[in-house]
Amino acid sequence: MPIAPLFLALLLRAFAVEADSDARQLVELPPPMSEHMLANMRDHLLAIEQITRSLADGRYEEAAEMAEERLGMTAMRIHGAHHMAPHMPEGMRAIGSAMHRAASRFALAARDAEVSDDLASAFAGLSEVMGQCVACHSAYRVH
To answer: What is the pLDDT of residue 143?
Structure first.
């Protein structure tokens, strides 16, 4: 047997074993909702990257607006949270709500940094947002 197909077969088997041993709670959603949730999470990740770039460039108001509109409490309506929430376990809903609240608090800290130049508070707020992402991804999985 040629090496490449053998390697591919072993790699696929390793991924299958890893998926079988994934202890995170599987959240089963109807396919359109699952796709919507995964798209939202990819947008959250993109928003965090853009927010950190804005902070690095000293554009604090831009970082604040992005955080509120794409991650904060304002974003819950845009992301269809009221349609998604009934399909999520209570713990997942709680973490998601905590992430949105943390993002709104971060937006305020980023706006304050514009005046106070207190980047430590802004980064602490952004870390709180990311901590909620890590908590959710550590406890739950969607496919």
So the answer is: 80
